[in-house]
Design goal:
single chain; 386 residues; Alkaline Phosphatase, subunit A; five-stranded antiparallel beta sheet; 13 helices; 13 strands; 22% strand
Length: 386
């Protein structure tokens, strides 16, 4: 059996009044799949202080067949693997995000998607000023980096308690920290980081240019050195990940999966190159996770991105897969109007539960729903046969 997950993430700036990715787009091939396959919804679970914002880290994790309880599946551990950071026994890795804060609130979880050439010097300054025998700052890519500590009390006190900054936009950051000694330690580290970053020349230039400064770090997703059980061992499937995501690079390395970069844009040449690279991978491996991210908030650019994806990737994919024997395809696309992830699954042995259209309401009415994505991987790979 061949399995392909096509995950289309809405990465438009937070707070913008953007429509869902499918709204108004002429995606005829996705529409055909919605009529012939099973339409469903991955619903986020509400959590105290976070509303019903999409926890994309957990959604990725569940689509890899991982559970919250899996040791080594924390974001920090994935970030360390993505950055090539080796953790020694007793060390804990944290996701270290460069964010923009204003008046004590997180207003931009990626500091305007700050590029690596600017974030690198900022991380170096943090390491120069704030590292110690038990703490160090490791560079990653863009706004995503790694904080490593040898402090069991801090790791234990904050385990699972600190959310990704994308879930906390507009919220007072100090109120999002755990109580007790761990929370106080994190607060002090974050405040000290702000003092270093505020004074850095990179941020002064960004402010002069009208760009969001990376004026604070956010530490989250503490993960221990314990490795994850390889994907092939867990599932019996060989596989690869195709994405530009720093986090997903970490997932691939943590799980022993292949990795290759995704398209640099949604223009025709990069998407054609992506499809050409998928051909050999489909023949050689059992499971592919293809992740693309639409970052523009411009309505026209968003429509063009989805229409090109439908024509240049989804169409040839659905034509090629049946020629390779038994197959299953799951296409999952963010929808901000639902604050959920509609999906369409089709292929050998899957039931037909069509959606009347690609409108948000059609998916919202589907009885096929997975709270937080839990169970979606098992249903897709081992679900009902007909």
């Amino acid at each position: 059996m061949k399995y392909v997950i096509l995950r289309c993430e809405d990465g438009a700036p937070a707070g913008g009044r953007t429509a869902g990715l499918l709204e108004g787009a002429k995606t005829s091939h996705l529409q055909q799949l919605a009529q012939a396959g099973a339409a469903g919804l991955i619903r986020p679970q509400a959590r105290a202080g976070r509303g019903d914002a999409l926890d994309r880290f957990h959604l990725h994790r569940t689509l890899f067949g991982l559970e919250r309880s899996d040791a080594g599946a924390a974001a920090g551990r994935c970030y360390a693997d993505a950055a090539g950071v080796t953790l020694e026994p007793g060390e804990t890795a944290w996701g270290c995000e460069l964010v923009t804060q204003r008046d004590g609130r997180i207003v931009d979880p990626t500091a305007g998607n700050i590029p690596t050439k600017e974030s690198g010097p900022l991380l170096q300054a943090l390491d120069d000023e704030l590292s110690s025998e038990t703490r160090r700052w490791e560079p990653g890519a863009g706004p995503h980096h790694v904080f490593v500590t040898r402090d069991p009390a801090l790791a234990a006190g904050a385990k699972g308690a600190v959310a990704s900054p994308e879930l906390l936009v507009g919220r007072a950051w100090r109120r999002q920290l755990p109580s007790g000694e761990a929370g106080e330690t994190l607060r002090a580290l974050i405040e000290r980081s702000s003092a270093v970053l505020d004074a850095h020349p990179v941020n002064r230039v960004r402010v002069d240019l009208g760009e969001n400064p990376a004026n604070m770090v956010w530490l989250w997703g503490a993960g221990a050195a314990e490795p994850l059980r390889p994907f092939a061992e867990r599932t019996g499937l060989s596989g690869s990940v195709i994405s530009n995501s720093f986090l997903l690079r970490g997932f691939a390395r943590s799980l022993g999966l292949g990795w290759r970069e995704g398209p640099a844009s949604f223009e025709e040449p990069p998407l054609q190159r992506l499809w050409e690279s998928l051909g050999p991978a489909l023949e050689q491996q059992d499971w592919l996770y293809v992740h693309v991210k639409v970052t523009s908030g411009d309505p026209v650019q968003r429509l063009c991105a989805m229409e090109r994806l439908d024509q240049l990737l989804l169409k040839p994919l659905t034509e090629r897969l049946p020629r390779l024997g038994p197959w299953r395809l799951l296409a999952a696309v963010d929808d901000r109007t639902l604050r959920a992830v509609p999906f369409i699954a089709i292929g050998t042995g899957l039931p037909r539960q069509p959606a009347a259209s690609l409108a948000a309401d059609a998916f919202a009415q589907s009885p096929l729903a997975f709270p937080d994505g839990d169970g979606a991987f098992a249903w897709f790979t081992q679900g009902p046969t007909r």
